[in-house]
Amino acid sequence: MNTSTEAPTRRAWLGLIAVSLGVALIVVDLTIVNVIVAPIIGDLGISSIQAQWVQESYAIVFAALLLLTGRLSDLYGARKLFLIGLAVFGLTSLLAALAPNGGLLIIARFVQGVGGAMILPASLALINAAFTGEARGRAFAVWGSTIGAAAAVGPLLGGWLADFSWRWAFGINIPAVVLIAMGVLRYLPASPTVRGRVDVVGALLSICGLALLSFGLIEGRAHGWLLTTEPLNLAGIEWSGGPSPVLVAFALSAVALSGFWLRQSRLGRIGAEPLMDVRLFGIGSFRKGNAVTLLVGLGEFGIIAVLPLWMQFTLDYSALQAGLALVPLAVGSFCASGASFSLTASVSALGQVRIGLALEVAGLVLLGLFAAADSAWWTIAIALFVYGIGVGFATAQVTNIALADVPGPSAGQGSGIQSAARELGSAFGIAVLTTLFFSSLGAGVRDRLTDAGLPDQAVEQFGTAVTDSAGSVVPALAADPSTEPIAVAAREAMSAAVELSSYLCAALLGAALLATLLMRPTPVPATEPDAELSRP
Q1: Residue (of 339, 389, 340, 330) closest to 363 by Cα position
Q2: What is the pLDDT of residue 96?
Q3: Within 13 Å and on the Cβ side, how many CA atoms surround 422?
Q4: If you ran DSSP here, which 8-state letter would residue 279 be given?
Q5: I want to staple 20 with a disulfide (CB 3.0 to 4.6 A). Which of 94, 146, 200, 417 is the partner?
Q6: DSSP bridge pairs for 232
């Protein structure tokens, strides 16, 4: 790692703004869909499973490609990869905005994830190269706080644009991409490259392993976790019985990821060029920091995926009102980002992460306690504000603690691994939380209708309708006096599902907080890069 303390130039800070806006763009697209999924369901007539894929397809590809794009960032230059990623992101945003049906929208979201996967690790490598010493900590604070704030701003922006058309939530990316690209070209120099090659076999193993794992997490509710409950039709082939395709996907994922790890270990031992240098996990701060990052991703993003559905279909908020309800989260994150910037000289990055995680846990517990079919807006605002402050502190510095001791020549790869941990956490967090949410919703509706004395056929019919529509049928049920009791049951069940989701996220972030207790603040290292790789 470069240990120079030379003050960064004004151009470097302007370049940081451009890079941070690029990262904000891809994070906004991860959360903006949470609010516009309701009008998408209404406009394109998609099911709740398809709605999950609209949300998840982007995150899955994003996470699955990060190890590969981190390596490409080292080989071909971070700035070049960042700009290519912006171009891919802009073009696929246009395709998503024009999509005439759910299938093409999901395809556009898949390819959009490719652009996002190029942008994120390249942004970290650019910051790592442009800043050193105390300034690097502040730069990471800006970068990380941008992620936390963008995650909350996405639903607000989506809610506002949904008043015109959900398509504008994707169309607005195009002028933003042009402006960000101009800023990067003007203020950041071309990045250095290293000679080497890409481990294609390793890349395929990691992509297949992560994609299969994501598929299993999302589709388990539809096709069964152990045995096939609903047929899977894929390319004209029907899987209709025996072990669930989800169980097979999990097994194949374990094989692929185990093969990937063994291959990377072998390539490292023989001095070849692995896609992921497993020696980096010999650095204590990197290994433990990535474990914390994974848990933070699991706990932070999942709750944002389900809150807008609850607000719109249980609390009768419009898309814009649902976005406004999440503003306290963004405000809390912005407040924390300002405090984090000024505290870098007096409070360690690890200390700030601990403060943030504790506040996140407190905010989510409050949200779970307040969740009800008639929750007042101010109770939600209090919980989300506390949670947002925590997001601002934790997200701002978790990258800093993970990459603190990574040697300069491995910055791109280290950034790719750390980004992969974050995005894997968020992708799997969304998959797990939405699966838990919809499963709890379906079970809750059926239990309440059964207790009310409805016949089994009606219980199954309404339970399936509420779940498959992601709750969008609730307003129509409430408008008809004959089905109003069904709507009441659905709203109560949805509130209970939000409560359960909040407590699960709080538990995951609590586990991350406990993991930080195994770490200690790491000073800027003075050792040589090769020595760093064997640090315990």
Answers
A1: 389
A2: 92
A3: 26
A4: G
A5: 146
A6: 239
Q: Which of 127, 189, 129 is nearest to 4 (CA)?
A: 129
Residue whose pair of structure tokens reads 């929750």 in the numeric block = 375
Inter-residue contact 130 to 12 (CB < 8 Å) = yes
3-state secondary structure of 327: helix
Q: Name, in order, each residue with C-beta under 8 angstroms of 479's C-beta and a sequence gap of 6 or more.
A: none
The residue behind tokens 């399936």 is 464
Closest to 384 (Cα-Cα) out of 532, 294, 498, 489: 498
As a whole number of angstroms, the distance between CA 536 and CA 532 comes to 9
Which residues, other chains included, contact 514 with Cβ-Cβ below 8 Å and sequence gap of 6+?
none
Give CA–CA dist 187/170, Å, rounded.
27
Q: How far is CA 416 from CA 87, 166, 276, 290, 481, in A?
A: 20, 32, 9, 11, 55
Q: Which residues of the chain have pLDDT under 70?
A: 1-8, 48, 144-145, 147-149, 151-152, 192-193, 218, 234-236, 337-338, 340-342, 344-345, 396, 408-413, 416, 521-536
* Residue keyed to tokens 């089994």: 456
What the block records as the tokens of 139 is 């730069």
**Phi and psi of 184, rounded to 5°?**
-65, -45
Quote the Cα angle for 183-184-185, to 5°: 95
- List residues bridging with 233 in a β-sheet: 238
pLDDT digits (tens, 9 = 90+) for 267-299: 888 877 787 778 888 887 888 888 888 888 888
